[in-house]
Specification:
Layout lengths: L5 E4 L5 H10 L4 E4 L7 H5 L3 E2 L3 H7 L2 E4 L4 H9 L13 E4 L5 H13 L3 E4 L2 E2 L2 H5 L3 E6 L2 H14 E8 L3 H29 L4 H10 L5 H12 L8 H13 L7 H16 L7 H5 L1
Helix pairs in contact: 4-5, 8-9, 8-11, 8-12, 9-10, 11-12
Bound molecules: NADP nicotinamide-adenine-dinucleotide phosphate.
């Protein structure tokens, strides 16, 4: 059992398994989710439901936030009755959602204004790595805050890295998710090209996964391609958001625009709440 009292806002696909792991290693965790019914699973596993975001921040030493995007994170931190609306000096706030480096810096300033500390810590890895404590946590902020949060990061992932000041962790996250977008688009195009020329989908996936081009992500997504069923582990709309943020952050490489356009068009066709690998359905 840890002495560190944790608050957690956001119990979506990622928040749920991450909080479960914190509970398993003995952290007392208080949780808040906008749709309160979604707290049920972790409350049954031992978490406490917060009276409000404001009260959760007042009552705990460290508060982590795992919500959809920049606007959601800003609302959770700085909205009326948000995390920073009460007396929070000396507390440490950690945003683990994927947002732009600029939003991270805004959140850091908002925390500092209230005498609180801030880290950004977006994670690389989806639901399965979250369940298996195999996430990679990309931290931006001060070394002393990173050291304070390290026991929490150790309970959530296999590796945490302090990559620089606030902004650097988000930049690293946008870079790795750009690679994810390129990989998934490439996998979908490869399989569809092979199939159009008489190769079975199953055979092409075996050729990819048994060879040098196979990777953790191609192996993880292959069963979904075979079944053509894409329930969200990582919703396509979130990757579209990350590719947009990478563009806004200045990526101008040859593939950056077509890859973003492809995922954006898939989202506009109604595939945003499906898994990222639904890019295959869109291209098909
Ligand atoms: P998700 O399943 O869509 O859950 C989103 C969460 O954000 C829900 O708890 C939702 O609350 C909350 N939320 C959204 N808008 C809000 C608002 N305005 N105010 C308060 N709460 C709000 O998303 P996820 O897959 O867990 O992803 C969360 C973050 O992690 C995203 O930034 C994503 O890019 C990143 N990420 C995801 C993965 C992955 O594989 N899924 C991997 C790495 C990083 P409600 O329940 O009330 O809607």
């Amino acid at each position: 059992m840890s002495n560190l009292k944790l608050g957690w806002a956001g119990l979506g696909n990622m928040g749920n398994p991450m909080v479960s792991n914190l509970l398993k290693v003995g952290f007392p965790v208080t949780v808040y989710n906008r749709t309160r019914e979604k707290e049920k699973e972790v409350v049954e596993a031992g978490a406490t439901s917060a009276a409000s975001l404001q009260q959760m921040a007042i009552d705990n030493d460290m508060v982590l936030v795992m919500v959809s995007d920049d606007n959601a994170a800003k609302e959770i931190f700085t909205g009326d009755n948000g995390l920073l609306s009460g007396e929070v000096s000396g507390k440490l706030f950690i945003n683990v959602s994927t947002v732009s480096p600029e939003t991270s810096k805004i959140l850091e300033q908002a925390c500092q204004k209230q005498g609180a500390q801030f880290l950004e810590a977006p994670v690389s890895g989806s639901v399965k790595p979250a369940q298996d404590r195999m996430l990679i946590i990309l931290v931006g902020g001060k070394e002393e805050n990173y050291q304070k949060a390290k026991p929490v990061f150790d309970a959530l992932g296999k590796l945490s890295m302090l990559v620089g000041p606030v902004g650097a962790g988000s930049a690293a996250k946008l870079a790795i998710n750009y690679f994810l977008g390129v990989t998934l688009q490439g996998l979908a195009e490869t399989v569809l090209f092979a199939q159009a020329n008489g190769v079975k989908v199953e055979d092409m996936l075996t050729i990819v996964n048994e060879g040098a081009c196979g990777s953790g992500i191609t192996k993880t997504k292959s069963p979904a391609i075979q079944k053509e069923e894409f329930p969200a582990a990582f919703a396509l709309k979130h990757l579209t958001k990350d590719l947009r943020l990478a563009k806004e952050q200045g990526i101008q490489t040859p593939l950056s625009t077509p890859i973003y356009d492809s995922f954006k068009q898939a989202q506009d066709k109604g595939l945003g709440d499906q898994d990222v690998m639904a890019i295959y359905s869109f291209l098909k």
